[in-house]
């Protein structure tokens, strides 16, 4: 017998894992850029440099499936409007502009960018894990946009020194 938490409880618990915010972009069948906001991005390996994105079926999923390529644009803390745009709340002044490099569509203000070739795709439930070998990357200084408790947050990135670390909380858990 399999037991699963109710969807609302799972979503609330999973939202307590703070993540960065990215826009995954690709080229559709007509050659136009498409993109979606995603916080399911992680590095997989350093040799060769490999990353993973998890995409739900839709336009960007179709473009990545067809082209076998995607770019990951890590958003800066002041890019909330861009994150919302690619999550389905369009900007009033129209879509953000892209730079194109080696066939990858890039958001110029992103604090990190990865151009990837898909080396494996694994279907899990209603998502596909696209594992991509990084063909090139670049970065610039800036604070990251974060997502926590289903809200955009300023990912301050301030280091916590060992002397400032708090003890593990033994009480206060809710199950």
Structure description:
The chain has helices at 7-14, 59-67, 80-85; strands at residues 19-20, 22-27, 33-38, 41-46, 49-56, 69-74, 99-101, 104-106, 112-124, 127-139, 145-148, 151-154. The strands form 3 sheets. The protein has a 7-stranded antiparallel beta sheet with strand order 3-2-6-9-10-5-4. The chain has 175 residues and is mainly beta. Strand 7 and strand 8 (104-106) form a beta hairpin. The radius of gyration is 18 Å and the shape is globular. The mean pLDDT is 89.
What keywords describe this structure?
single chain; 175 residues; mainly beta; 7-stranded antiparallel β-sheet; 3-stranded antiparallel β-sheet
List unreliable stretches of 5+ residues: none
Mean pLDDT across the residues is 89
Oligomeric status of the shown chains? single chain
- Straight-line distance between termini: 21 Å
Whole-number radius of gyration?
18 Å
**Beta strand %:** 35-45%
Q: Please tell me what the overall shape is.
A: globular
Main β-sheet, spatial strand arrangement: 3-2-6-9-10-5-4
| Helical content band | 10-25%
The largest sheet is: 7 strands, antiparallel
- Would you list the SSEs in sequence order as H and E? HEEEEEHEHEEEEEE
Number of helices: 3
Structural class: mainly beta
């Amino acid at each position: 017998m399999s037991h699963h938490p109710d969807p609302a409880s799972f979503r609330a618990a999973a939202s307590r894992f703070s993540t960065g915010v990215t826009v995954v972009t690709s080229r559709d069948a007509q050659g136009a850029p498409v993109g979606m906001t995603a916080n399911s991005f992680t590095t997989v390996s350093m040799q060769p440099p490999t990353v993973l994105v998890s995409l739900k079926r839709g336009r960007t999923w179709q473009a990545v499936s067809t082209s076998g390529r995607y770019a990951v644009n890590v958003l800066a803390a002041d890019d909330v409007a861009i994150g919302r745009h690619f999550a389905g709340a369009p900007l009033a002044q129209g879509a953000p502009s892209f730079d194109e490099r080696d066939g990858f569509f890039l958001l110029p203000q992103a604090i990190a960018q990865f151009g990837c070739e898909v080396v494996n795709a694994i279907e899990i439930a209603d998502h596909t894990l696209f594992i991509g070998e990084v063909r090139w990357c670049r970065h610039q200084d800036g604070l990251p946009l974060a997502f926590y408790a289903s809200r955009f947050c300023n990912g301050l990135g301030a280091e916590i020194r060992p002397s400032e670390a708090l003890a593990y909380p033994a009480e206060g858990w809710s199950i």
